[in-house]
Amino acid sequence: MKNWLFLGVAIASEVIATTALKSSDGFSKLWPSLLVISGYGVAFYALSMTLHTIPLGVAYAIWSGLGIVFVSVLALLIYDQKLDLPAVIGIGLIVLGVIVINLFSKTSLH
Fold first, then answer.
1. I need a surface site. Which of 3, 70, 72, 76 has the fewest CB within 10 A?
2. Which residues contact 94 (CB under 8 A, 6 or more apart)?
3. Where in or outside the cell is it found (predicted)?
4. Distance (Å, rounded) from C-alpha 72 to C-alpha 88?
């Protein structure tokens, strides 16, 4: 259970860091840049902690898949960046993939 908590922290930290990346303006703004660096540091540390029991491929699929969804939602809310229908369908397929892994894969149980 603790490893799934670490995975949640990894996802949240990566989403915060990636969202701040746009505000950093190519690392020319101090506070957003520090948020990016610290967010990715926490994200990779927390992701590495999940790998004690969750297989690398499964952890990475969930981490990156949910990260894409959350970053896309935040980009819409914060930066008013809209997605077209093919992008929404593609992201929906990513979510479906994460659901299939979690519900049906015996690999994710190790």
1. 76
2. 65, 68, 69
3. Cell membrane
4. 9
Long-range contacts of 45-53 (CB under 8 A, 24+ apart): 46/6, 46/7, 46/9, 46/10, 46/13, 47/6, 47/7, 47/10, 47/14, 49/3, 49/6, 50/3, 50/4, 50/6, 50/7, 50/10, 52/3, 53/3, 53/110
CA-to-CA dists, residue 53 to 31, 66, 79, angstroms: 35, 19, 37
pTM: 0.89
Q: Which two tokens stand for residue 63?
A: 């981490």
pLDDT, one tens digit per residue, over 28-75 is 999 999 999 999 999 999 999 999 999 998 999 999 999 999 999 999
